[in-house]
Amino acid sequence: MPKRVKATEAPNVPAITCPELLGQLIKAKRTGMKLKLRDCAALCGVGVNTLSRLERGNPNTTLAAAFSVLQGLGIQLTVESDSSAEEWV
């Protein structure tokens, strides 16, 4: 009998501030969708090793790969406006 995908919890934080938290978020979404690593990688158009590195929070994964996975899983990044953002303009 094939292994079932066990859902993991998403990080309970107000913001994703490091690669490890992004990886936890991605893994929680994937497992919540009951997708195996290889199936999710195929869906997102990345390699299994790339997806695995993202989920482990490897900071050397490319931004392009991260966005492919986020898009494939339906995760949107949003910007919260604050007063310090105006300093960048």
TrEMBL record:
<feature type="domain" description="HTH cro/C1-type">
    <location>
        <begin position="26"/>
        <end position="81"/>
    </location>
</feature>
<protein>
    <submittedName>
        <fullName>Helix-turn-helix domain-containing protein</fullName>
    </submittedName>
</protein>
<dbReference type="InterPro" id="IPR001387">
    <property type="entry name" value="Cro/C1-type_HTH"/>
</dbReference>
<dbReference type="GO" id="GO:0003677">
    <property type="term" value="F:DNA binding"/>
</dbReference>
<dbReference type="Pfam" id="PF01381">
    <property type="entry name" value="HTH_3"/>
</dbReference>
<dbReference type="InterPro" id="IPR010982">
    <property type="entry name" value="Lambda_DNA-bd_dom_sf"/>
</dbReference>
